[in-house]
Design a protein that fits this description.
This protein is of the alpha/beta class and 350 residues long. It is 46% helix and 11% strand.
């Protein structure tokens, strides 16, 4: 596969089809992949021959596991230029998809995390299967739930998006439907048949999705929805931790154990990010805010240490700095969220 392009973008009938084609890396996004997808979307945007754009992936292992984390860490340990370029181009792609004038469909068959979420969530139709695993796991490596996480997660009911952002919880199709992450559920064995039908009749996509729709089952997180709404609606990360300690249930204690493994800096960054994202009046404003965060945290200790511990050495024993929530000052956070000089700030494609 090494000689093949990382993205296969082509017209099939009246469908613009974008296939992620980096299966050995679970289709983790590179800067080049984001450019290729952007170019295709721009070429098809005003083409009357294109009725719908479909995102899928080659191979069997999953839709997209995120971004090219090793590249980001390598860049972040130096001048950070390549990492900032990646974020700039990726976020323009996310925003282009958010504003795209034609119907878009993402087939989230398998792992859909990080950068894959940024591709799928702006799409009008978001298809899950029994193999779908959704997560925004960035707090575990000192990054943050970007690619529009501030917008999407903050608008989920009952603070469930904040729970996803802080814990990095992995959820399956039924929970994805409950939270509006997925619009439809189809059994993986029928996905190829569904794709073929859509390629023949893209105008009938809604009818076809209804015809192929299956039952994803009961969403497990519904059993904890009230508890999440009460505890994760607190005014700070420290208050959330206190609420979990006070609750004392097996589920609450499991969340505490999970949060204790995460970067305290990133937990507080994600909390503020979702507050600001919720208040943002446009998706582009949210992405400009996320770019300011990304441009800075990619060079900070916790991201480099998180990648070392989880991805490089795999000892899963990161030494976070600051080491506690209480040690993460408002001044530190203010610096991460501060405005950039105009010539360095993110801007959407025109």
């Amino acid at each position: 596969m090494s000689g093949e392009p990382e993205v296969l973008a082509r017209l099939e009938g009246r469908v613009g089809r974008i296939t992620l084609n980096r299966p050995g890396a679970l289709h983790a996004l590179t800067t080049n992949m984001c450019r290729l997808m952007t170019d295709a979307l721009l070429a098809w945007r005003d083409d009357p021959a294109v009725a719908l754009v479909m995102f899928d992936h080659s191979g069997e292992r999953g839709f997209c596991a995120g971004g090219d984390i090793r590249m980001l860490a390598d860049s972040g340990s130096g001048d950070g230029r390549e990492a900032r370029e990646f974020f700039f181009i990726e976020y323009r792609l996310n925003d282009l998809l958010f504003r795209y004038p034609k119907p878009t469909l993402a087939i989230m068959d398998g792992i859909t995390m990080g950068g894959g979420v940024g591709l799928a969530q702006p799409c009008r139709y978001r298809l899950a299967t029994e193999r779908t695993t959704f997560a925004m796991p960035e707090t575990g490596i000192g990054l943050f739930p970007d690619v529009g996480g501030g917008w999407y997660l903050s608008r989920m009911p009952d603070h469930l998006g904040l729970w996803l952002a802080l814990t990095g919880a992995r959820i399956k199709a039924a929970d994805c439907e409950l939270l509006g992450i997925a619009t439809d559920f189809v059994e993986s064995a029928r996905v190829a048949e569904l794709k073929a039908a859509i390629l023949l009749d893209p105008d009938g996509v809604e009818t076809l999705l209804t015809e192929f729709e299956a039952d994803a089952g009961r969403p497990p997180i519904a059993a904890h929805q009230d508890e999440i709404a009460r505890i994760f609606g607190a005014s700070s990360v420290e208050a959330i931790v206190g609420g979990l300690e006070a609750a004392g249930s097996d589920w609450a204690l499991e969340q505490l154990k999970t949060l204790a493994t995460k970067s305290p800096q990133t937990l507080k960054v994600a909390f503020r990010q979702l507050q600001l994202g919720r208040a943002a009046t446009t998706f582009a404003d949210n992405m400009a805010m996320e770019y300011r965060i990304g441009a800075r945290v990619v060079q900070r200790h916790d991201f480099l240490e998180g990648v070392r511990a989880v991805i490089v050495d795999k000892d899963n024993a990161p030494k976070w700095d600051p080491p506690t929530l209480e040690a993460v000052s408002e001044e530190l956070l203010d610096g991460i969220f501060a405005s950039l000089p105009s010539e360095e700030a993110w801007s959407p494609l025109t």
